[in-house]
């Protein structure tokens, strides 16, 4: 069980101090650390005798469930992770989710920072110039989807090859595994990489995805966990997910964005999408964005979420959107939105067997004893 007994035992007299004191140098030092009160992901690798650079394969089929979170300053702010662990009842996340548009340079330190505080980095890589927050989920700003420079055909034609290749080389140099969720929620109409907006056409998405993947392969960036991540089908019921799927050779994980909105259970939220995806692939699944809207069904949904995960072993992890509208999310999805929700979240999370990041005997071990060095930010903008 991934719940740390020392931390849970400290709840009665202040778990915050127990977590933060270790984060400040009294034992916790990230994935390569040896703290007994705040173990990181690599600290929980089976049979681990010394830190080593893990291989991608060690993360693909974990021995438990990944607990991920998307926070305001992820993955750089260690104090934010410490606070999240306190809010989660003393349980540290094992996955850190963050976003990067193609108008921004990739910073290799994002990988370093993730592993330093014990999480597998999950990068949502967005091929657009960025956009403003939509006023409402069903009110999409034209400037967010009308970005001709980022049409899918331009990606396939090579317009961004220099940027893609520079990013791939930086990730290769970092060596440590990174999950990439490229051009997510492609079955919706709220991003310029949807085939239904921005001058795109049917078939363009798969071509663009494969092109990006192939450039990474050519650059030798084999430490990427490729995550194809549609939105749940609720708002896009007439869109064929199969026609947007690039194929098993191009995908390691299938992700899903899905939030509880006026639904009493995650079974209602996710079942139709899971069943649809299973008609064409059985890759491991990660709920790459989730949370529960503040409504009459919120507590019911949160209470049901953790038992639901245990009943659906094809789902190997989840990322909770620990943000609200002020921090860039479409709503207040934080599990700390109320004391009742937080207590239910803590109780449910404590029942899970969390992933160590490894499915079997470690392979590809090296003599490395530290997380990747913290390089000067590099990269290239398109």
Automatic annotation (TrEMBL):
Active site as annotated: 185, 289
Extent of the signal sequence: 1-17
Family annotation (Gene3D superfamilies): Glycosidases
Domain annotation GH26: ranges: 36-344
GO biological process, one term: substituted mannan metabolic process
Bias kind Low complexity: ranges: 366-382
Residue stretches of biased makeup (Polar residues): 356-365
SUPFAM superfamilies documented for this protein: (Trans)glycosidases
Region of interest called Disordered, as start-end residue ranges on this chain: 346-382
Annotated InterPro entries: GH (IPR017853), GH26_dom (IPR022790), Glyco_hydro_26 (IPR000805)
Any coiled-coil regions, as ranges: none
Key words of the record: Glycosidase, Hydrolase, Signal
Single GO molecular function: mannan endo-1,4-beta-mannosidase activity
Family: Belongs to the glycosyl hydrolase 26 family.
Protein name: Beta-mannanase
Species of provenance: Actinacidiphila alni
Classification of source organism: Bacteria, Bacillati, Actinomycetota, Actinomycetes, Kitasatosporales
């Amino acid at each position: 069980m991934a719940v740390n007994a020392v931390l849970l035992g400290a709840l009665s007299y202040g778990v915050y101090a127990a977590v933060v004191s270790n984060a400040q140098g009294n034992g916790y030092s990230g994935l390569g650390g040896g703290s007994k009160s705040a173990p990181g992901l690599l600290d929980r690798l089976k049979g681990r005798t010394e830190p080593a650079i893990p291989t991608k394969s060690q993360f693909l089929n974990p021995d438990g469930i990944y607990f991920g979170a998307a926070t305001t300053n992820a993955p750089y702010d260690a104090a934010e992770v410490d606070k999240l662990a306190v809010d989660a009842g003393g349980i540290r996340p094992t996955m850190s989710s963050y976003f990067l548009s193609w108008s921004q340079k990739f910073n290799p330190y994002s990988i370093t920072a993730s592993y330093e505080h014990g999480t597998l980095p999950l990068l949502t890589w967005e091929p657009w110039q960025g956009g403003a927050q939509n006023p409402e989920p069903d009110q999409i700003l034209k400037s967010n989807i009308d970005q001709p420079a980022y049409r899918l055909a331009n990606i396939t034609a090579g317009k961004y090859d220099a940027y893609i290749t520079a990013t791939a080389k930086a990730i290769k140099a970092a060596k440590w595994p990174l999950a990439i969720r490229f051009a997510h929620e492609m079955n919706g109409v709220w991003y310029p990489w949807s085939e239904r907006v921005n001058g795109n056409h049917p078939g363009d998405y798969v071509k663009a995805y494969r092109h990006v993947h192939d450039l990474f392969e050519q650059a030798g960036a084999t430490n990427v966990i490729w995550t194809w991540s549609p939105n749940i089908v609720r708002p896009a019921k007439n869109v064929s997910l199969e026609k947007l799927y690039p194929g098993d050779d191009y995908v390691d994980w299938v992700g899903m964005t899905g939030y509880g909105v006026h639904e009493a259970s995650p079974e209602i939220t996710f079942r139709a999408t899971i069943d649809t995806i299973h008609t064409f692939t059985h890759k491991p699944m990660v709920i790459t964005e989730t949370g529960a809207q503040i409504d009459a069904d919120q507590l019911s949904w949160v209470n049901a979420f953790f038992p639901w995960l245990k009943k659906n072993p094809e789902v190997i992890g989840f990322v909770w959107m620990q943000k609200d509208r002020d921090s860039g999310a479409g709503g207040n999805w934080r599990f700390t939105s109320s004391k009742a929700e937080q207590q239910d979240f803590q109780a449910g999370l404590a029942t899970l067997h969390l992933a160590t990041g490894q499915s079997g005997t470690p392979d590809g071990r090296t003599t490395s004893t530290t997380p990747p060095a913290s390089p000067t930010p590099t990269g290239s903008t398109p």
